[in-house]
Amino acid sequence: MFSKACKYGIKAIIYIATQSLEGKRVKINDVVDNCGSPEAFTGKILGSLVKYDIVHSHTGPNGGFQIESKKLKRIKVSDIVLAIDGASVYNECSLGFGICSNDRPCPMHTSFVKIKNELRRTLETTTIYDLAVGCKNGLLFLTG
Amino acid sequence: MFSKACKYGIKAIIYIATQSLEGKRVKINDVVDNCGSPEAFTGKILGSLVKYDIVHSHTGPNGGFQIESKKLKRIKVSDIVLAIDGASVYNECSLGFGICSNDRPCPMHTSFVKIKNELRRTLETTTIYDLAVGCKNGLLFLTG
DNA sequence: ATAGTTTACGATAATTTTGTCCGGAATTAA
DNA sequence: TTAATTCCGGACAAAATTATCGTAAACTAT
Known about the structure:
2 copies of one chain form a homodimer. The first copy, chain A, is mainly α. Chain A contains 8 helices and 2 strands, in the order αααββααααα. In chain A, β1 (56-58) and β2 (64-66) form a beta hairpin.
C-alpha cells in the first residue's frame, strides 16, 4: 500500500505532532526511539517533508522538528502520502496500465475505483491533529 | 498495492482464461504479446502459479498454458494475489507495525480495517471467469 | 530414435528501494 | 570566538525487486 519511506514519514509526523501539541520540539533520535524507525533514513524523509512545508526544522542546540499548532488540524495524512509516494495510490491503474478509465477499463477498474475513492476520502479527511490526540490519550499506539 | 509480479500474474491468468474459454492453450509469447509484460519474468510467475495449481502447463509442440474450464469460475483474483504477494495486503498493518489490532490499534488502524475488508471482499468475489468474459465481450481491456 | 517445440529452472544482471556514514552548515550559549 | 548541538546533503552500501539468458527437461510428431 505505502512504501516504507511513507510509513516512516507518517509515524514520524504523528509523533512530532504529539509533542507539538505541548509546544515541544523533538530531535530526530527522539522521533525514531518513539516510532521504531531507522534514524538516518527517517532523517532523509523528514528532510523532504520540511521542503513540502509539512514540518519545520531548526538546527543547533534546542533545535529539532516541530509543527505549527495552527497547521496541526490542516495537515492531512494524504499530504504526507502525496509528498513521499505521490498520487500513485489513487491514480495508478491497479494492473499497471497507462490507459485505464471508465471509457477503457482494465478488468479490475470498476472494482478499484470504489476502493481507491474510499482510500482517498479516508486519507484526505484524517488530520494529523486527530491522530496525535488519539496517541496522547493512550487510545492509539505508535509502536508495535 | 500489488507488486509488478502480481500484476503480471493477474493479467496473464486473465488472458489465458479468455483462451481457455474456447478450449485453446496459449504459449508464453502469446500471453505477453497480449498483456504487454516481459516474457521471461512472466514465465517465472506463471511457473509458480502452476505450482499453486491455478493454471496448467504442457511442454512440447502444441503445449502452453491452460485453465480447466470448471476451474474458471472457481478461481478468484484473491487466489492469484495470495500466491504471489501473500496475505500482506489484507493482514499487514498499514504503518508496518507487527502488533496492530482492535485492542492495540495503530493510528490508522480503524480507517484501514474498513478499506482492507472492502478490498478483500472485492478480490474474493471476483472470478477469473467474470473478467475473461468481460474481455471477450470487448468491455474490458488487457492492454493500455 | 530423432528433430523440433515448449516450459522449467538456475545463474546472473539491472534497477529500485531501503539504509548508513560522514563532513559541512546553521544555530545557540557561554 | 569558541565549543557544543543539531539538521542537511552527498556519497556510498545493502537488500529487495524486477528482469534476462542459457541450458535442461518434457513432450509431440514423424
